[in-house]
């Protein structure tokens, strides 16, 4: 029989995040990349992202990030644009709130970008008011 070398299998190691506290270097966009904010989670590893160049794109979370980096609505992400499909992109990187604030301070993100808010509704305030006329009998 083989000798036991440790305590259990993969499930033992699952909860450990070894590099969670480390500060990483800030990554800026290059040619063919764009900053975006997640507007809607679509499932199946896809998100709807509002890019800061004005376009709304369907972005696919790459395999290295799936089930390791959790992306939520309102997060700032870096996406890679596709040459052959302008309305689709791939998620390369997710910025945490501190990194997103630094990008805004460097002038990479516009001043209108909401960093720490999940409400990314772009409509006007007047559309939210609803009035009912109820006639008494």
TrEMBL record:
Q: Which UniProt keywords apply?
A: Initiation factor, Protein biosynthesis
Function noted in UniProt: Seems to be required for maximal rate of protein biosynthesis. Enhances ribosome dissociation into subunits and stabilizes the binding of the initiator Met-tRNA(I) to 40 S ribosomal subunits.
**UniProt cross-references to InterPro entries, sorted A to Z:** NA-bd_OB-fold, RNA-binding_domain_S1_IF1, TIF_eIF-1A, TIF_eIF-1A_CS
- Family, per the entry? Belongs to the eIF-1A family.
GO molecular function terms here? Answer: double-stranded RNA binding; translation initiation factor activity
Query: Could you tell me which residues belong to the region Disordered?
Result: 1-28
Q: Where is the composition biased (Basic residues)?
A: 1-15
The UniProt entry, under CDD domains, shows: S1_IF1A (cd05793)
Organism phylogeny: Eukaryota, Fungi, Fungi incertae sedis, Mucoromycota, Mortierellomycotina
Q: What is this protein called?
A: Eukaryotic translation initiation factor 1A
Please list the residue ranges annotated as the S1-like domain: 22-96
- What residue spans carry the Basic and acidic residues bias annotation? 16-28
